[in-house]
């Protein structure tokens, strides 16, 4: 889906637009490198949660949490990176659990696209509810946005936290337990 040739041409145009010589030694291969980088960091466009929807028969109806999943994404407003950690809690449904790595892979499907953190959080939670027929899901995303750190208001050290909570995890005390465990029991 990602047209690397077109990206290369666009990057060459950007270099010309800022007054650079795209044929000088240090920039000669930059359009190709940038196109390759976009193909890698935006690989979520060529992927789908269906590719990572594996379930195993297992009688387990308690909460499962995978926390501190590192992610890198690109803000759709400025095409600058935002990055941080994703925490996923879910309660399996119908005596079926998924492989833990599948949770991180589904997060990557959505993180590796031009994104808004709020949308990404919701997409991850919805995919886990649907694909794994979960009884409940909580996704918490903590991120730093380069569009806030290196430009605009220039506020290094600021974090944005978003959450999406569905099903049984919306109810107390399950919600409180999930947040407590995500915070490391502190």
TrEMBL record:
- Which intervals hold domain GTP cyclohydrolase I? 7-178
Binding of Zn(2+), residues: 75, 78, 147
Pathway(s) the chain acts in: Cofactor biosynthesis; 7,8-dihydroneopterin triphosphate biosynthesis; 7,8-dihydroneopterin triphosphate from GTP: step 1/1
Q: Which SUPFAM superfamilies match?
A: Tetrahydrobiopterin biosynthesis enzymes-like
EC number(s) on file: 3.5.4.16
Which GO terms of type biological process are on file? Answer: one-carbon metabolic process; tetrahydrobiopterin biosynthetic process; tetrahydrofolate biosynthetic process
Q: Which reaction does it catalyse?
A: GTP + H2O = 7,8-dihydroneopterin 3'-triphosphate + formate + H(+)
Q: Name one GO cellular component term.
A: cytoplasm
Enzyme class per UniProt: hydrolase
Oligomer and partners: Toroid-shaped homodecamer, composed of two pentamers of five dimers.
Name recorded for this polypeptide: GTP cyclohydrolase 1
């Amino acid at each position: 889906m990602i047209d690397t040739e077109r990206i290369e041409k666009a990057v060459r145009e950007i270099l010309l637009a800022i007054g650079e010589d795209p044929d000088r030694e240090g920039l000669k291969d930059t359009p190709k490198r940038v196109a390759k980088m976009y193909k890698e960091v935006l690989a979520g466009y060529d992927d789908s949660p269906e590719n990572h929807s594996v379930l195993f028969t297992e009688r387990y109806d308690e909460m499962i949490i995978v926390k501190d999943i590192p992610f890198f994404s690109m803000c759709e407003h400025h095409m600058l990176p935002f990055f941080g950690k994703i925490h996923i809690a879910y309660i399996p449904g119908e005596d079926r659990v998924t492989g833990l790595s599948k949770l991180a892979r589904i997060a990557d499907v959505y993180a590796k696209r031009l994104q808004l953190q709020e949308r990404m959080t919701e997409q991850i939670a919805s995919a886990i509810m649907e694909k794994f027929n979960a009884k409940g899901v909580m996704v918490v995303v903590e991120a730093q946005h380069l569009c806030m750190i290196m430009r605009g208001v220039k506020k290094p050290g600021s974090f944005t936290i978003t959450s999406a909570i569905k099903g049984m995890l919306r109810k107390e005390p399950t919600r409180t337990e999930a947040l407590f465990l995500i915070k490391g029991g502190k």
